[in-house]
Amino acid sequence: MTFQEHILQGIPDNLPEPKAYNPDINHAPKRKSILTDEEKKLALRNALRYFDSKHHETLLAEFKNELESYGRIYMYRFRPDYKMYARSIDDYPSQTKQAAAIMLMIQNNLDYAVAQHPHELITYGGNGGVFSNWAQYLLTMKYLAEMTEEQTLAMYSGHPMGLFPSHKEAPRVVVTNGMMIPNYSKPDDYEKFNALGVTQYGQMTAGSFMYIGPQGIVHGTTITVLNGFRKINKSPKGNLFVTSGLGGMSGAQPKAGNIAGCITVCAEVNPKITQVRLDQGWIDEKITDLDVLVSRVEKAKKNHETISIAYLGNIVDVWEKFDEAQVKIDLGSDQTSLHNPWAGGYYPVGMSFEEANDMMANNPKLFKEKVQETLRRHARAINKHTDKGTYFFDYGNAFLLEASRAGADVMAKNPTIGREFKFPSYVQDIMGPMCFDYGFGPFRWVCASGKPEDLAKTDAIACQVLEEIKKHSPEEIQQQMTDNIQWIQGAQDNKLVVGSQARILYADAEGRMKIAQAFNDAIEAGEIGQIILGRDHHDVSGTDSPYRETSNIYDGSRYTADMAIQNVIGDSFRGATWVSIHNGGGVGWGEVINGGFGMVLDGTKDAERRLKSMLFWDVTNGISRRSWARNDEAICAIKRAMKAEPNLKVTLPNLVDDKLIDSL
């Protein structure tokens, strides 16, 4: 069969041959056994309902073995034989190009060069799934191929519930992931209900089909590192940034360090992903010996090098060794997947990767004890460095949260609301006041043609738009504009594309709308093919997360999720091609609600109307909430927005004299 015929077939009537387990692929670790015997039977019933009863006897034994061997039923037999990557939009069978664009983005999320565990349908973060099993993938692609502009596909945590009558202005797909009743949103609830096949962890852009590889976080990390050095009044050149994690998201850190111009040391325990990052050019060197690492860093400091070094081993050993060897760390952070601490997101010090994985699956209680012991040791080592002047920040991966739960020394001596930890979140001190409050966040686009020349043209268009906007920008956002222009001018040189022909930059509502309008005009003129717009959920208004995106909200509302819910509802009736809302992502199951969108530009007046309506709301919703929280930068930004748009009328806070409150 052709690729198109495979898509239209969906779940095959005749069983394909079983697939051999490929040890060369980076696989998800075995999940802990959490189901009772009766629940295991239920998980098998749930899996078999995708298939004709004539296949149940054959598949039952196979799925039972998967559940026992891996802790999940992935349905490996049904993994497609065709290569998984983002094809040109014209290669997909479809009734509407909007649906074809979504198929393109799904395949990009599962591209072997992009996905962390491609055979388990996990894009990044250890458990950020596009789907829970291969039957869901096959059925979803078939539905998308058949969909018209009078239908909407409802996606329930990876399961395509079906095509429902709607209308041309409605989203083509509405995605929900992990939307649990609140009392059933603890970590073990995820393990149980995911094993049953009834929910999944979509992370942020994994389950919303909008991941663009590590580039998606390279830009944000570059801005964070640059502003981190600015905060301590140091140049990145010749100075040291130490962190950990080389997975789907964290793998961006070494590349960002190179762009910022510093020395980066990033530790990673997984040898396969470390080698992948080396082969991709996302790290410059790999070192396995701590003494060699110390010598190499000292040489880099002496010569003021810009270099990224991966240490294959545990980050705790690096912090401790650098303290012992008196290696000065200027900037420090961590980006291991501590939202997922008991299932492969963070590894205990003092044991091999293989030993840790075995303990994780077969002795989860001891594994948890070892992880928490390591977190306490990790924090002690960081404290030794911060006492000597290191600036350490939490990178929104729940490091401080999980360290505090482990009893580590990370709490502030004199805590205030929102400042409970002795170290700040990067959002609190850097991204929040410098970017999000002004409306700047991770706007992104994908060239649906798959042509590198289209990406080059869009880079040039975006740069031209930004340079024009900068001429009239207020002083408060001049730095953001300058950083953006520098980024986009160097984007091609830094070889950031992994998977789809995509780009990201931080832009506010004005920038997003004007760039999108320029793209739409270029499409209409036949200069470029169709464009898919999106953003990271980690944005101005997409996510409510008290220890990350909304950690600089100090009015007590950082634990509410109204903003994210309003965001996705508003996007859905203002023109988004698809919308998504998730529980979990970045900081953990039950710790965050986050939403995203995708929008197809096709050069039409309909697309022009939608982009103006939706992109303006998508940003100003968040600025208004941040303004109501009394954030000075957001008050400034929302006043500018109201001046630009007469139909926008936002409730502004009346500020209270601190002396009056303190007198009580």
Automatic annotation (TrEMBL):
<keyword id="KW-0520">NAD</keyword>
<dbReference type="InterPro" id="IPR035400">
    <property type="entry name" value="Urocanase_N"/>
</dbReference>
<dbReference type="InterPro" id="IPR035085">
    <property type="entry name" value="Urocanase_Rossmann-like"/>
</dbReference>
<dbReference type="InterPro" id="IPR023636">
    <property type="entry name" value="Urocanase_CS"/>
</dbReference>
<dbReference type="InterPro" id="IPR055351">
    <property type="entry name" value="Urocanase"/>
</dbReference>
<keyword id="KW-0963">Cytoplasm</keyword>
<feature type="domain" description="Urocanase C-terminal">
    <location>
        <begin position="436"/>
        <end position="639"/>
    </location>
</feature>
<dbReference type="InterPro" id="IPR038364">
    <property type="entry name" value="Urocanase_central_sf"/>
</dbReference>
<feature type="binding site">
    <location>
        <position position="395"/>
    </location>
    <ligand>
        <name>NAD(+)</name>
    </ligand>
</feature>
<dbReference type="Pfam" id="PF17392">
    <property type="entry name" value="Urocanase_C"/>
</dbReference>
<protein>
    <recommendedName>
        <fullName>Urocanate hydratase</fullName>
        <ecNumber>4.2.1.49</ecNumber>
    </recommendedName>
</protein>
<dbReference type="Pfam" id="PF01175">
    <property type="entry name" value="Urocanase"/>
</dbReference>
<keyword id="KW-0369">Histidine metabolism</keyword>
<feature type="domain" description="Urocanase N-terminal">
    <location>
        <begin position="84"/>
        <end position="210"/>
    </location>
</feature>
<comment type="function">
    <text>Catalyzes the conversion of urocanate to 4-imidazolone-5-propionate.</text>
</comment>
<comment type="similarity">
    <text>Belongs to the urocanase family.</text>
</comment>
<dbReference type="GO" id="GO:0016153">
    <property type="term" value="F:urocanate hydratase activity"/>
</dbReference>
<dbReference type="InterPro" id="IPR035401">
    <property type="entry name" value="Urocanase_C"/>
</dbReference>
<feature type="binding site">
    <location>
        <position position="268"/>
    </location>
    <ligand>
        <name>NAD(+)</name>
    </ligand>
</feature>
<dbReference type="InterPro" id="IPR036190">
    <property type="entry name" value="Urocanase_sf"/>
</dbReference>
<dbReference type="GO" id="GO:0019556">
    <property type="term" value="P:L-histidine catabolic process to glutamate and formamide"/>
</dbReference>
<dbReference type="GO" id="GO:0019557">
    <property type="term" value="P:L-histidine catabolic process to glutamate and formate"/>
</dbReference>
<feature type="domain" description="Urocanase Rossmann-like">
    <location>
        <begin position="213"/>
        <end position="430"/>
    </location>
</feature>
<feature type="binding site">
    <location>
        <position position="203"/>
    </location>
    <ligand>
        <name>NAD(+)</name>
    </ligand>
</feature>
<feature type="binding site">
    <location>
        <position position="586"/>
    </location>
    <ligand>
        <name>NAD(+)</name>
    </ligand>
</feature>
<feature type="region of interest" description="Disordered">
    <location>
        <begin position="1"/>
        <end position="20"/>
    </location>
</feature>
<keyword id="KW-0456">Lyase</keyword>
<dbReference type="InterPro" id="IPR023637">
    <property type="entry name" value="Urocanase-like"/>
</dbReference>
<comment type="pathway">
    <text>Amino-acid degradation; L-histidine degradation into L-glutamate; N-formimidoyl-L-glutamate from L-histidine: step 2/3.</text>
</comment>
<feature type="binding site">
    <location>
        <begin position="125"/>
        <end position="126"/>
    </location>
    <ligand>
        <name>NAD(+)</name>
    </ligand>
</feature>
<dbReference type="GO" id="GO:0005737">
    <property type="term" value="C:cytoplasm"/>
</dbReference>
<dbReference type="Pfam" id="PF17391">
    <property type="entry name" value="Urocanase_N"/>
</dbReference>
